[in-house]
Amino acid sequence: MNDHSVSLEIQQGQLVAFFAFDIGYEVSLEKVSRLLASNPKQPLSRKKQNPNYLQYTQVPHVLSLGESQVFDHWPGEIEATIFGFGAVSIAYRWALSGQNAPLGFSELPGISKRIYDCHLEHHAREQVQGLMERIRPAITRPELSDLVEDYYVFILERFSEPLTADALLKTQADTLAQVLQFDTDHLSEAQRREALAKAISYYDRDVVLIDWNASIIYDADYTDTLNVLELLNVELLEARYLDALLDKRIKNYEGLSQRQPAWVMPLSIPFRQSINELAELRIESAVLAERVDNSLKLIGDLYLARVYSAASEQFYMPTWDASISRKLDIIGNLYQLLTDRVNSYQAQMLEVIIIILILIEIFLSLYHGKL
């Protein structure tokens, strides 16, 4: 660690911890606004001077949950962001420095390790459970999933001395990588390069470093970038939730295609319940995936699109999307197989009935002929 790292201080910054939960199939944000004193999330700005096409398709609502000292007795604030597609993001915020007590930059890796080891997801789940009770009338099919997705963002707004993004990356590479990895030991050169590989800048005085479970934002105007990272964390949670749901339902239908109905009446539909459930699951899953994917429009903003793309890659979103698509295809194939089998059974039964009627007619003709 060089002398510059020891002397550098954070004069203004924040630590934000996000915890995403699935609470139901859908949330009526209009009902939420009537039940609670919540506010629509602010639209994304035009800081980067790009066309104003980057907006939420359904603006989530933000609700203050008060103050908390759950991390090192450090005063902080808790917010809940409620999304219409049935998810909630709990955000913990702490100031990294006070006006009279700037934080040494070299202390940041220790803070990152402690916050990661704090296991705040249990406290966050309690916050979500309390929130669900307050907005239950607004939730369609309310159910809190066991899954949780966490993400940590370190916001560096101002240092004790002017510093460009390039200078920060060159002089503080080891410390920055430690923060992203929640580690206090010196990392190898290869690990540092990997941790800092996703560096995105717009001006020479800002940079975003994105890793799989944490990001560092060096920018005084950080709100849009933070909102994109929060939404992506929720999207990852929803992808994991949908993937697990499809896994469970596919397992329930294992062997169904091999079952043979004992007797099929011509106008009856064997596997009726299973066919209806598969059709409903296929439609609902596709609708949920579409609502999540289209929750934020970034057309026209190349900077935020780059942030979104880099974070998506780090979160393995393309892999999750491919997994969900494959399982939806399995559901669709199973649905088609069952409907084809039902049609085949019904056709066979009709043929049997026709044969029986023909035999009866022949028998009656022979019987009357003998008379």
Provide an overview of this structure.
The protein has about 375 residues and is an alpha+beta fold. The protein folds into two domains: about 5-225, no CATH class; about 235-260 and about 265-370. The protein contains eleven helices and twelve strands. Strands 1, 3, 4, 5, 6, 7, 9, 10, 11 and 12 form a ten-stranded mixed beta sheet that branches. Strands 2-8 form a two-stranded antiparallel ribbon. Strand 10 (about 200) and strand 11 (about 205-210) form a beta hairpin. Helix 8 packs across helix 10 and helix 8 (about 225-250) packs parallel to helix 11 (about 315-370). The radius of gyration is 28 Å and the shape is elongated. Mean pLDDT is about 80; it is low at about 50-55.
Write the layout of secondary structure elements.
Blueprint: H1 3-7, E1 9-22, E2 26-27, H2 29-35, E3 39-40, E4 61-68, E5 76-83, E6 87-95, E7 103-104, H3 108-116, H4 121-135, E8 139-140, E9 149-159, H5 165-171, H6 173-181, H7 189-195, E10 199-200, E11 207-210, E12 214-218, H8 223-252, H9 272-293, H10 302-314, H11 317-370
Parallel strand pairs: 9-12
Antiparallel strand pairs: 1-6, 1-7, 1-9, 2-8, 3-4, 4-5, 5-6, 10-11, 11-12
Helix pairs in contact: 3-6, 6-7, 8-9, 8-10, 8-11, 9-11
